[in-house]
Amino acid sequence: MNHYNTLLISICIPAYKNPTLLKRCLNTVLEQTYSNIEVIITDDSPNEDVANVVKKYNDPRIIYIKNAIPLGSPENWNEGLRRSKGEFIKIMHHDDWFANKDALRIFVETALKTGSDFICSNCFNVHPDRKEKHSILKRFQKKWLQDPTLILYANYVGNPSTTFFKRQTDQPVFFDQKSIWFVDVLFYYDYTRLYPKVAFIDEYLIDTSAGLDTQITNSAISAKIAIGEFVYMCIKYNLNRTHKFLTILSMIELMKRHEITSKEKLSTLIENSNEIQLPYPILQLPISHQVFNVLKHLIILI
Description:
The chain is of the alpha/beta class. The protein contains 12 helices and 9 strands.
């Protein structure tokens, strides 16, 4: 087992308010059986609540950084990546936590045994009133390894707390500052297209918070942000050329979800609406967005 304790692992926790949730996260980090870690907390809070929690831990592995100017999401995540010195990085959102004491050890052992750069596990999505299992479908695992672009259309992985990846020094990968809603999948794609050795852990190693009003992504659920970021993503990666039908289907599903039913409505929402050519008459049909969503997933998985 000593062999597995030689790697320094950077656990990066971007913090913003919520000292109680941070304490839960930090407690599970420090009780991990894999102990060769540095814990980097980058704090965007407007007050000293997070700092006061961290001060109570007398652990030299904890590195606390109070951002002089609030960086926002996801740049606060990137600050942790920039500060990291470990061979692998484990992002932990402050409202997520390890599901058991051996979770980090399992991530490390999987990375070493498989020689992978990017590892992800199953997780529990913990709502205020229920706890649900989220597993990465075996079919998607196979398809994603064949075509990394598929992650842009459906996030089967989950949030970054479910991932574990090698710190790349020659060509580092960061979270896209222009994105909030699609920021997870943009990072997964940017990383795995450069470093395609991916491994999946069929265990539930992470508990992730779900349905909390304090989560940044909940405040990002709007037609302007969701559709605007999807169009940005399509332009950035030229998805109209590589996956035209899937792109159109996904765009229709998004527009139907947010009740944007015409080219005119779309043009008032985003500036570059002409970048994606859509069959607009379909938007007028009384078909639920869920139908298009099911079709999208079928195409991804077949």
